[in-house]
Task: structure prediction
Amino acid sequence: MREASYIKLYKSGELERRAAQAWEMLAACSLCPRNCGVNRLEGGIGVCGAGAELRVSSHNAHNGEEPPISGNKGSGTIFLTHCNLKCIFCQNYPISHLGNGITVTPEEMAKMMLSLQQRGCHNINFVTPTHFMPQILESLDIAAGGGLRIPIVYNCGGYESLEAIHLLKDVVDIYMPDIKYSEEGPAIRLSKAPDYFAHACAAIKEMRLQVGDLEIGEDGIALRGLLIRHLVLPGGMAGSRKSLEFIAREISPDTFISVMEQYFPAHNALQDPVMSRKITRDEYQEVVDIVDELGLANGWIQGDY
Result:
């Protein structure tokens, strides 16, 4: 098995240095593009809802990710509480909005990683990790010292700062960002993030520079690379064509993408006149047709279409 990217950094002490550098970003928090400037080290709470303490909702083997991520033994998912986007339609809002979970130390989260590896999981999959990146790096350094060797998946919303992503070079093996919106109006309306697309594009370009296109081993399990998710939204709110054109023309036509159709109105989307319904068969098929038109042949579509 290929050695995970972070092992070399652990052995050289660089992973510990990266964690310390990331912790400094919490003094006037700049972990994400909101740059709220809150001193999370002194008890401040960021726009994301998080302070300095690491909070985890669950950790388990997950079989519902894309095939090369879940494989036949599951992806070792660790769900972090809170989120820097707070989308009105979030299906995990008790975790991302309400912060349901428990406070854990870096040592405790390292034990979670090692237990998932012991269970045979193919990777460690951090879900909504952006606002806890310093704590994750510290935990990963401890886990690497304890024998963690499986790949790291960074499963994020795409609203990332380049400064933070630069710190993850040679730490993350597989980046799995969303592209949620390509237009300012829906990004404001649904996530209060008018600059979402610009930051997502810049971050995804950097991610691909770091890890390249998705590499899948002979056993069908992802080893390294980029996998982009795009959730089709009602009424064209995701701006799918522009998002997919960006991937095909500015990232790579070989990019692995997952076009998702499982949207349903959750949380505050029930009060939105557009978002209060599921997508139609035709809406999803329109996006699938764009994927075909652009020659994006790698990845997955869903449903019986």
